[in-house]
Write a structure and sequence with these properties.
The protein is mostly helical and about 230 residues long. The chain has one domain.
């Protein structure tokens, strides 16, 4: 695991923050086909990881347990789809999953490799790209979440977690850490033992979704009050 707040970790976070800010400004001033380029970068980055695993680049890894079923893996493809199509539902999923979930993966990375290895760059490009996509779409392009977006995304999240839980039960894998906590330090460590940390994490996720949605609902209320 990368040491939290080690120079290489801080460097990655600063680079992601600066790049995201530039992309948001670019989306406001000149939205265009470059959004699809960003989507392609995310997909290529994620698919390259599969080839890396298939080529034995991760000693001791089991390809069968490295399928793209973690929430962050799926979020990468959803973010790419949102950038490419700008369909409102996938934009909303990207926004809530990216800012409520993927940011946590950036702050507490499950990454044993160090700079300047391929896994280091792949990890931060993928996770940073999801966060950047969420802000580009919502802040840069102004595709704000609709009413009841929280309920829709929460429902999709629960349904997906149930599907992954079934895969875990059948295969013995631990996608989304539904069977045990990750070996690295994460927020789950302070949320109690299994299975209570799953319930605690769900409550926190719902709370974060509500916080992320609040500015848009407040704006709506103010606009209605002025009519």
């Amino acid at each position: 695991m990368s040491d939290l707040l080690a120079p290489e970790h801080v460097f990655a976070l600063v680079a992601i923050a600066l790049s995201t800010a530039l992309l948001v400004v670019a989306a406001r001033r000149r939205p265009g086909s470059w959004l699809k380029v960003l989507a392609a970068v995310l997909v290529v980055d994620e698919v390259s990881w599969w080839f890396f695993l298939l080529g034995g680049g991760q000693p001791g890894s089991q390809v069968a347990l490295s399928l793209p079923l973690q929430l962050c893996d799926v979020a990468i493809f959803i973010a790419a789809a949102a950038l490419w199509t700008r369909r409102q539902l996938v934009v909303e999923v990207t926004y809530f999953w990216g800012l409520a979930g993927t940011i946590q993966a950036l702050l507490t990375p499950d990454l044993p490799q160090h700079f300047p290895s391929y896994p280091y760059f792949q990890y931060y490009i993928a996770h940073g790209g999801v966060v950047a996509a969420a802000l580009v779409l919502v802040v840069g392009l102004g595709q704000r979440p609709r009413r009841w977006a929280v309920a829709r995304v929460a429902g999709l999240t629960v349904a997906y977690a149930a599907l992954v839980g079934l895969v875990d039960a059948v295969t013995g894998a631990d996608y989304m850490y539904l069977r045990s906590k990750p070996p690295t330090a994460t927020l789950l460590d302070v949320l109690g033992p299994w299975p209570w940390y799953i319930l605690s994490a769900s409550v926190i996720a719902a709370f974060l979704f509500a916080i992320l949605d609040a500015p848009f609902r407040l704006r709506e209320r103010r606009a209605e009050a002025l009519r």
